[in-house]
Specification:
- This protein is mainly beta and about 160 residues long.
- It has one domain.
- It has one helix spanning about 45-55; strands spanning about 15-25, 30-40, 65-70, 85-90, 95-100, 100-110, 115-125, 135-145, 150-160.
- The protein has a nine-stranded antiparallel β-sheet.
- The longest helix has 11 residues, at about 45-55.
- The radius of gyration is 18 Å and the shape is globular.
Length: about 160
């Protein structure tokens, strides 16, 4: 007699998503002028880096080390490896984590940059030059920042 055993597979899924809050303040007074809330796409390139690290391939550190502002109006896509048109990048001003949530903030001073930004992204292991690093996240935005304003982008990555 042959016994067949059926193994039930877990229905749990693993996902990474990002919520961001961008706050534009008056550079002199600190008064909040505008707040934007967005949800980012975590690109295949970024998820691939996480899979590599989990399998002990340490080609990349996994550290998000730049927040990118761009001007392209092309919709973000899962296969993106860079912003459409990167205009400025900045290293994080703070990094923290609690349980399965990473919080990474980027602070752009009044003198850093100004203009109309149509995309925001983050990269893993980027350098100081544009289009370097592994794109982790990418989102379409509509932010206008003047030379008299600061911009803080608070990124919250949840792994569930």
């Amino acid at each position: 007699m042959q016994v067949k055993e059926k193994i039930k597979q877990s229905e749990e899924t693993f996902s990474v998503f990002q919520n961001i809050t961008a706050t534009i303040r008056d550079a002199k007074t600190g008064k909040i002028k505008r707040v934007y809330k967005e949800r980012n796409l975590v690109a295949t390139a970024g998820r691939t880096v996480l899979a590599m690290i989990l399998s002990n391939d340490l080609t990349y550190s996994g550290v998000i080390n730049y927040g990118l502002l761009g001007t392209s109006t092309t919709a973000p896509a899962n296969a993106d490896t860079k912003l459409g048109t990167e205009a400025f990048r900045k290293a994080p001003s703070s990094n923290t984590n609690t349980a399965n949530v990473a919080n990474i903030s980027f602070y752009y001073t009044a003198g850093d940059c100004n203009g109309t930004y149509k995309e925001f992204g983050t990269v893993i292991d980027g350098g100081a030059g544009a289009d370097s690093g592994q794109l982790f996240s990418h989102v379409a935005v509509d932010w206008v920042k003047s030379a008299a304003e600061t911009l803080t982008v608070d990124c919250q990555y949840t792994i569930s």
